[in-house]
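To: structure subgroup
Subject: Chain for Friday's discussion

All,

I'm putting the inputs and outputs inline so they're searchable in the archive.
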Amino acid sequence: MLVGERRELLLGRLAAEGKVLAKDVAAELGVSEDSIRRDLRDLAAAGLCQRVYGGALPVSPAVADYASRTSIAVAGKDRVAALAAGLVRPGATVILDGGTTSLAVTKALPRDLAATVVTHSPTVAAALLDHEGIEVFLLGGRLFRHSAVTCGAAAAEAAQAISADVFLLGVTGVHPEAGLTTGDAEEAAMKRTLARRAADTYVLASAEKLGAASRCAVLPFADVAGIITDADETDPNVRKLAELGVELRLAGH
């Protein structure tokens, strides 16, 4: 089998099974594990998979730049946002993460809602300008352009003064084995900081993020109250997450 054919097989296996184990594929094809690891390394460098110990997982489409992500799974994000918006009760304080799904949440919030929103996303804060009943607190810090959020020591320090009822957390990947992940270590650290400031954390995960993984772990499933997704209940990842005891809130199609 030619190298190109082997890599097409690896990508097909990722799409069909949600993971690739280098040892198993090497034995199946009669090649060395090193050859498969090189293939996976090259595929990862091209942005086509996420390497993990022993193999690879599907890469999340949410690692694309912010402008590109605004056109990915728009309907799914709107469904997730509509369900998530119901968690923001009148008088409550909510921490709203950055990203395109969080931006959809701002559109789903009732215009007459009286609440407090804390965010480290300038775009989310700006989207709430016409919600006159919502008090907005914007956390300052170094701007991380990929997700249009502030991170770093200044943002983390500002977060220590917050106490919230709920945190609506955005991630780039939700995988039964890899857990909740995102593409940047500093952004992942900021998400953990914000989660510690809220009584409950809910993950915003449109269907394309399920079964995908990025390189930086955010939180274990045990640390979140639930995952809000528009994935169908027959989705293999939904079933696996349910078997792990993860609370799932399914947004209807």
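Points worth raising on Friday:
The two ends are 42 Å apart (CA to CA).
The chain is about 35% helix and 25% strand.

D.
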